Amino acid sequence: MKLWQAALPLALLGGLGILGAYQLMQPEEEIFVAKAERDAPARAFPLLDAPDQEISFAPPPGDKPVMVNLFASWCAPCRAEHGDITALAAEFPGQVYGLAYKDAPEATRGFLQELGNPFEKIGTDRSGQGGLDFGLTGVPETFVINPEGKIILHVRGVLDEERREQVAAALAG
Question: Which H/E stretch holds residue 115?
């Protein structure tokens, strides 16, 4: 075997290592807010305080866009964004909904009792399948759905002032 044939796999491995290290050192450029035009899930969710009743967002209740925030009591970032959700609920009464993701109802109730309940209604997604139907990658996430049942905005992660303004613009129509 020639020397270059023996060195080739090592050179390729070294090149891949350098490429991997370069990628890891680059700043993360994740898209947190995305405009979307896809259907909201055609799934009905049991209500937190009335499990015999359900809510669906395809189409959403009413004739205005609605915001659906997927959250959980065990989610620290959900606590961090709660003030922004409360502000949106005050600005857009009747348009802010919650969906408790993989959470026990008593834990969700405790979370809302402690921080306040800004939501018009709260659905429950104990299995997590509904969140996956939405396109959830991890809580918290926020979706704005137009009156026709189309997701028009998807915010991954915690709402901050800039993202709250984008959600408010979508809710205003």
Answer: helix 105-115
